[in-house]
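Morning run. Coffee first, then this:
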Amino acid sequence: MEYVMGYLAALVVVAVGLLGIILSLIVLEVSKPKFVVALILSLIIVGLGGYYYYVVGQAEQGVANPNVLNSVLKVSAVTPAPPSVILPSSIPTGEMIPLVPRGEREGSAVKKQPAPPVKIKVKEPKSMER
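And here it is:
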């Protein structure tokens, strides 16, 4: 499915370039220098879309690495080393700290205290009359 999305993205880029060529032909009637600039930019976009389509096809066949840009730019992602955990050699044997405050314990069972009532203030809606 990932290659299908790549092909669709490449076709969208090519379509935008073709729309740019059509718009540059419309601009030709207004100004020739603007037509030349728009035509060159549109042809560059069509060329990049075609190259993108080619790269997706090569990656799908397994000929090219899917991450072609990193190989061209010589950029590599640095993977950090996993954190090292140093455990203590002995566990301290002191008095265990209770998780429940002393006043609330009763043997091994914990007394549940009722929750205080919640008071919600509701504002009356303002009247819409004028």
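Residues 8-68 form one domain. Good start to the day.
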